[in-house]
Design brief:
about 200 residues, mainly alpha, two-stranded antiparallel sheet, about 65% helix, elongated
C-alpha cells in the first residue's frame, strides 16, 4: 500500500466541520458555546452543559427570589411546582434561538445537524421548569435525573414527540425537544410532589 492508501484505511476520519460555514455568533449560539462541536454524542454534550450551568442559575435564583422563585399549581394536597426562573429561561432560549437555528441550517445547507444543540439546552431548562431552584440547590443530584429523563425522551421520542420534528425549519428542531422536556419535567414534578406528600 502506498501512503495515501494507508491514510485512507487507517487514518483518523475527519469530522466535517459544517459549522464553519456560518458566522461566529450564530455558531456560538447554536452549538451552545461549542459543546455541540463534540465529535461524539454532541446532543449529550449539549444537554450536559445545560445541566451544569443550571446549578449556578438555581443558586442565584434561589438567593435572589427565595420562596417567590417557584409557584404551586394545584391544591394543598397535591400540587406541581413551577420554577419561574427555568420557565423563563426555556421560553427565552426557545424563541431567541429560532432565527439562529434557521440561519445556521441555511448557511451550511443542513437540516437539524447534530452540532446544533441549543434545542437540547431548551429541553433541559424545560425539564427544570418543574423543579424549584431550592430543590436543585439542596439536592444537586436532581440535575442528573433531569438529564437522564430528558435524554430518554429526546432519543426515543415517544408519545408523538417525533411528529414535532416535521414542523418547518427551526420550529421542528426546537419543538420536539421542548415537548420532550415537558414530558420529562412532568414525571420529575409528579415524583417530587409524591415524595413531599409522603414524607412531609
Amino acid at each position: 500500500m502506498n501512503k495515501e492508501e494507508l491514510k485512507e484505511k487507517y487514518g483518523k476520519k475527519r469530522v466535517p466541520h459544517e459549522w464553519r460555514k456560518t458566522d461566529w455568533f450564530t455558531k456560538l449560539v447554536v452549538t451552545f458555546f461549542g459543546s455541540g462541536m463534540s465529535p461524539k454524542a454532541p446532543g449529550t454534550m449539549g444537554s450536559l452543559a445545560a445541566a451544569i450551568i443550571a446549578y449556578p442559575m438555581a443558586v442565584f435564583a434561589d438567593s435572589l427570589l427565595g420562596e417567590y422563585e417557584a409557584v404551586a399549581i394545584g391544591g394543598n394536597e397535591f400540587a406541581i411546582f413551577i420554577s419561574l426562573t427555568f420557565l423563563a429561561a426555556a421560553i427565552f432560549v426557545f424563541f431567541v434561538s429560532l432565527p439562529f437555528v434557521d440561519k445556521a441550517m441555511k448557511d451550511t445547507g443542513t437540516k437539524d445537524p447534530g452540532w446544533i444543540v441549543i434545542d437540547e439546552v431548551c429541553g433541559i431548562f424545560t425539564v427544570l421548569a418543574f423543579v424549584p431552584s431550592v430543590v436543585i440547590v439542596d439536592c444537586p443530584w436532581v440535575l442528573l435525573l433531569a438529564f437522564g429523563f430528558f435524554r430518554f425522551f429526546d432519543i426515543f421520542k415517544p408519545f408523538g414527540i417525533h411528529k414535532f420534528e416535521k414542523f418547518p425549519g427551526a420550529w421542528g428542531v426546537m419543538a420536539d425537544d421542548l415537548l420532550g422536556g415537558i414530558y420529562a419535567g412532568i414525571l420529575i414534578g409528579l415524583g417530587l410532589t409524591a415524595y413531599l406528600s409522603l414524607f412531609n
